[in-house]
Amino acid sequence: MIDFNHVDKIFQKDWYALRDITFHLDKGEFLFIVGPSGAGKSTLLKLIYMDIFPTRGEVKVAGYSSSSIKTNEIPILRRKIGVIFQDFKLLPYKNIYENVAFALEVTNTPRRKIKKKVINTLAEIGISHKRHSYPHQLSGGEQQKVAIARALVREPFILIADEPTGNIDPEGTDEIIKLLLDINASGTAVLMATHERKLVDNAPKRKIVMEEGKIVEDTDAVHN
Prior knowledge:
Blueprint: E1 2-11, E2 15-25, E3 30-34, H1 41-48, E4 56-61, E5 64-65, H2 74-78, E6 81-85, H3 96-105, H4 111-125, H5 140-152, E7 158-162, H6 170-185, E8 189-194, H7 197-200, E9 206-211, E10 214-219
Parallel strand pairs: 3-8, 3-9, 6-7, 7-8
Antiparallel strand pairs: 1-2, 1-4, 4-5, 9-10
Helix pairs in contact: 3-4, 3-5, 4-5, 5-6
């Protein structure tokens, strides 16, 4: 489903953000990408949704290759990928329902389908009681749940989470991790990047550890 084959990403002539990255992610898998700030985690994620492209090597995602994808195919690929960020990226002038609905409106989904899908997704995430609230009225954990709902409403084959707990208190962090594990258990692949090793040490999921743009460890945890 996702393949990195000897990928380098070089910025500013000779600065390697990523060096010789090779790994495979299967359908429905959960993968933690762990490493300190500057390790290359965000760069790796941007290669998956083809915001940037490798300097060397190849990235394959859902049948598309970084070597051959056409410009007009990139939006099609991105509709299959849900992405959430540390800073939520919610629209402050829209309420929670409208924020999630917007993800479908931009793909010209019929209005009657939008309402049903948004209400169902908000209920699944456990945030439907806040649908008339605005982002500034929610806690950080609640805002991240809305961001997750917005990503999931398009039924992506993979959910990518870039430091999703970075702006959330410990209680909210535990809720977000549990939510991502539940989403994965329902069949959606999840790839979560974090600098907080302690968050993932006890999770029975595969972990890739990065340092200075390289993979230094790729381990399949013992599943319960």
